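Hi L.,

You mentioned the student needs an example of a multi-chain input paired with its predicted structure. This one should do, with 984 residues in total across all chains.
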Amino acid sequence: MKRIWPYLLIGLSAMALDVTRPSNAVAFEPTKPIEAVVHTGPGGGSDIFARAIAELMQKEKTISQRMHVVNKSGGGSAVAMAYLAEKKGDTHTIGFFTGVWVTNPLTTAEAKVTINDLTPIVRLVLEPAVVAVKADSPYKSMKDFIDGAKKNPGQLKQSGGSVTGRDNLVRLVTQKATGAKWVYVSFPSGGERIANLLGGHVQMMVIEPQEAGEHIRAGNMRVIAALTEKRLPSFPDVLTLKEQGIDVPVIPQARGILVPPGVPKDVVQYWEGVFDRFAKTAGWKQYLEQNQFEDAYLKGPALGKFIDDLTVQMREVLKEAGAKVVR
Amino acid sequence: MESVGNLLLGFSVALTPGNLFWCFVGTFLGTVVGILPGLGPAATIAMLLPLTFKMDHTGAIIMLAGIYYGSKYGGSTTSILLNVPGESASVVTCLDGYQMARQGRAGPALGISAIASFVAGTVGVLGLMLVAPPLARFALRFGPPEYFALMALGLAMVVFLAGKSMIKGLLAMLVGLWLAGVGTDLFTAESRFTFGHMELLDGIDFVVVSIGIFAVAEVMINMESRGGTELFKIPKGLRNLMPTLQDLKDCRFAFLNGSIVGFLIGVLPGAGSTISSFLSYGVEKAFSRHPEKFGTGVIEGVAAPEGANNSDIGGSMVPLLTLGIPGSNTTAILLAALILWGFKPGPLLIQDNPGMFWGLVASMYIGNIMLLVLNLPLVPLFAQILRVPYFVLYPGILGISIVGVYSVSNSLFDVWLLGLFGLLGYAMRKLDFPAAPLVLGMVLGDGMERALRQSLMMSEGHLSILVSRPLSASMLILALLIVIMPMVNKVRSFKMKAVEQEV
Amino acid sequence: MATHDNEEILTGICLGAFGAYVAFEAFELPYVSEYGPGPGFFPLWIGIGVTLLSLVLVFANFFAVAADESREHQSRLAIGRALVGWSGLILAISLLHWLGFGLSLALLTVFLILALERRPLWTALSVAFGLALGFHVIFVLALGLSLPSGPWGF
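Structure written out for the whole complex:
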């Protein structure tokens, strides 16, 4: 009988230790492949971005499971956002959001989900853009173009995507700030926008610097302004709008990650940790450089503030644009 | 000549055992994908992308391209045998191809489809090699007014596809135009006729409409009588399973027509292969000695569109080669694959990687030959599908239709639409409304409205922009002529009759 | 005595109503926008076009002779069969979400073979099983497509 006491003591201590052990010591780890939801079809901007990141994460071994891209295109971002909202509490689904996820619900009554219904994790990049003209165009700077537009109001044309997209919003704020007026022609595909610029049907377009770079190398295009806060490293001689005397807010094109609503806190922390590690990897830094993205890592409350500010800014700009704002 | 040197380089790359293997895999997969309604090359390529990261890039692009043009070979199979369009570009093939099958000529239809695809596909690749730079520069002159005129030309084809009643043809076309407008307006982001459904924000998918109106309606027609209507005479004997020499002779013009029209339309970014197949069908009918027979099972009516949707691919590579701009949706995905592998998109992509690009072009020659060899012997095999008893065939076709529609965007809503359009198609059949104008309206309506509004944006509201430019003006005049001609003919024959009666 | 082709006239009226509806809805949309014709422009003209052509259709058939009665009875039976088949399809589609593709297709097959073709139950069941299995093997297993799946995963 006396011999039992040591064992009982040990047993009780073990139990006590077990009870006092911190409850989140078993961290969340995914146990099956991750679904990465994008709002474009295969080949679209978000699709390529997500696939590249999925591949990089595999290489850098930042997560233990494979990530595969799921295309939920439709209604801008409406279908993708609705899909994510339905996956309430799902720990193995993430979404790749862009600025469209913020603006689209503002103008689309049929969209049932807004960005505030989802759980943002991190903002990864800001996509810069430049203003490009045909190589033999008479406009050597944005100021030239504005002057040209002022002399011939409504004659100059810009090709771009949807009227609620960044291309047009840049045009609207610039028109307001300078008093110039020029026409906007929407083309659904990037290829058509470039073709119309090169064919002389439009005089100017907003384009990603990496894409512009290739056309410049071929001698087809010229860049006359950078739509960023600071000059782009790949175009050191191209002035920003502000440097050219056009004082307009930079309309950001952000890309980031979010998860469905109702996901437990430790899972959110897990994802934050994953992208923390990922953003520090060499592969990611190389990708940023290759694609001329601005490293805009942001998370937590600062991210929430960014999204709120963006929503307010977009709502204002859209209203000024005459778009029907429904929320 | 530079091209010859490039081509030799290309063949040296393409004829390696590894690349030949990938070419075969791609073309085989493409044929299978083409046969299945709904599932298109774009989605398949996207699905295979993760696997390609570990592959040699040249082999990978050869395989993906093989899927692309391979699918155009297979697309006609279900169109001819079951009136189920395998691909949106194969809808036109349903018109005459299915009729041929009902007359026991399924074999020749399938055969001529493969042969036309081969001839036109090869011409497309040749065109890509030889006339790409000047053609691309010419294509740049196509701005919104020219696109509008081109679509108007296409719509004028309604005149040719209307059949008996012009009024019903026009009504069907207008409904098609309306269907094209459902969704979000590109220019103002306003939604039209979405009835509050989020799924309609992107419009109604063409595949859903075409499979509903053709396939489901066809099944319903056959359900009317027990045992089905006396559908198919099963072709007997090998002679009946292949196109005859007479058939080949009849299709001489169709081969030419399909190759050229398809290639030219393919060069224009934004004009898809559906448009090229419709246009070449219309051109074929316009130049035919027996236009009234189109729609009843005329072999040229199969050869022309099937050729067009193959040479279209060569054409869509032209802007890719010369300007770095994809000429079609699927080409855009190929470009995306190149980006993912680390290549930089743009006009210098080809210059920087001649081995890969010319290897690709050479592999397209080889691929076309492979596909011909693959597909021709399969013709008798496919024709045997018609032996399946109808009570197995009907649920099978309905099942394929559902799968085809669901595979487009994984949406049950689309399947519901399928049911709806099936009923519409049935009603149209019973009431003698032709289906082709509706489909044509839907295909062109989108592009036409967009082009018109873009043109008016450019000209600040002046319609004169459409006729002040030589290219668009000439196409519009042509379209007008096409529309007026039958009326003039009617008046003339009316007068002749009056004269005869007097005598 | 002029008789009407009722079928055609009814069609014309229905289409006319549709055209009027489209034109009406299009009226609500902006006719012109800042950038040229607005979203309401095309649908309005399409609606008007449909309405006008429908009227032409109605008047053209006002004096046409209707199809004779016996043929009509025959065709009514035929249409009935087709609609029964169609309702089977719709039923199967509504079951897709709950039962999955395989089962829904099997049920549709059984329905069609039994109700329309009046073949024995055994034929219906075996064909249904064969088709469902075939579809599953080809589309889900071999091609990796995702089809609606029911409680048992197919």
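You could point out the following to them. The beta strands of chain C are 32-33, 36-37. The interface with chain A takes residues 34-35 of chain C (CB under 8 Å).

Best wishes,
N.
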